[in-house]
Amino acid sequence: WTFGLILKTVCKAAVAWEPKKPLSIEDVDVAPPKAHEVRIKVIATGMCHTDWEYLYQAGKATRLRPFPLVLGHEGAGIVESVGPGVTKFSPGDKVIPLFLPQCGECERCLSPKTNQCRKNWANTQVGVMADGTSRISYMGQQVYQCLGVGSFSQYTVVSDISLAKISREAPLDKVCLLGCGVSTGYGAAVNACKVEKGSSCAVFGLGAVGLAAVMGCRAAEAKRIIAVDVNPDKFEKAQMFGATDCVNPKDHSRPIQEVLLEMTGGGVDYALECVGSPAVMTAALESTTDGWGTCVIAGWTETETMSVVVEKILMGRNLKGTYFGDWKSVESVPKLVDDYMNNKLKLDEFITHNLPLDQINRAFEYMKSGESIRTVISLW
């Protein structure tokens, strides 16, 4: 076959035409991949809380992510075609598209200090490819791709540095979760916090990111893992992932950080914030012990401001953030898939609902009501 024979394809996609409105299933055109791009047949995608944020909390961030928009950044699929210059992927490969690239050549990729490659970053943040345009359109109108991915479409096109080739045996309706939430929470514990054996931890928020953080704390052999959430229905699941204690802030008249300080005799060694709430971030920091306590922010928010009492930092606490769990995306995601295949990592347990693409708006309802941890959307 030749590049000249690759044509645009027509497929179903869930399009967000404007903020705060339900998604609409449309027949969209997906253009052929250009140089260093890959077109993917998306088999399954998770719905992440960030998708909900971009749609329903769209405020200042709307300037960054114009509409119409195909959301979704937690997908898995099969390579359908490749553009000129692509050497690492072939049609038929199983892959996970990545909202965080890894070019392997820039200063950040070559440094062990960060995973935050910035190649094509500015463009993907506004939903376009390296050339400034999207590959998805509707009746000639450009439709933007969330974070350069847009996995709520049966086909999408991504950069070849934003793609991980994975095991041919991997179940795509499970490993799609490694495209964002599970990797972020698990990495927040094992990479960003570097949780130590025998330590004490508190995880704030028991969505997919928080439960994955609990799983990471357990993998690191923490002695005590305190799960914190206002929804007690999530406690049983948290204990299954490794939590030793579960605390509902609504059960206490005092601030939750004071409760945790008393429970632990001075504070936890590690606190992980997995909500994206500035108030919870402050509580997480203040729940750590002075001298060496570390608080890692994994919950996503773009426009909020966190309040920090300077004395809390002066007394030796560490406050840091993590993006995609500090994983080097292209090289790490295939290893995480292998860990799942070898029963070293849980994924099935995160999935509470499975829905077809035409019922995708129900997934937002499940998320808003707190019924779901992860809903996986089947696109075919």
Written overview of the protein:
- By secondary structure, this protein is α/β, with parallel strands linked by helices.
- It is 26% helix and 24% strand.
- It is built from twelve helices and 18 strands.
- The strands form three sheets. Strands 3, 5, 6, 9, 10, 17 and 18 form a seven-stranded mixed beta sheet that branches. The chain has a six-stranded parallel beta sheet with strand order 13-12-11-14-15-16, with helices on both faces. The chain has a five-stranded mixed beta sheet with strand order 1-2-7-8-4, with no helix packed on it.
- Strand 15, helix 10 and strand 16 form a beta-alpha-beta unit.
- The radius of gyration is 21 Å and the shape is globular.
- The protein starts with 8 loop residues before the first strand and ends with a strand.
- The mean pLDDT is 94.
In brief:
The protein has a domain at 182-325: 3-Layer(aba) Sandwich (Rossmann fold). 26% of the residues lie in helices and 24% in strands. It has helices spanning 49-56, 107-110, 121-125, 172-175, 181-193, 208-219, 235-241, 256-264, 278-286, 310-314, 329-341, 360-369; strands at residues 9-15, 24-30, 37-46, 69-70, 75-82, 94-97, 136-138, 141-145, 155-159, 163-165, 200-204, 224-228, 245-247, 270-273, 294-297, 318-321, 351-356, 374-378.
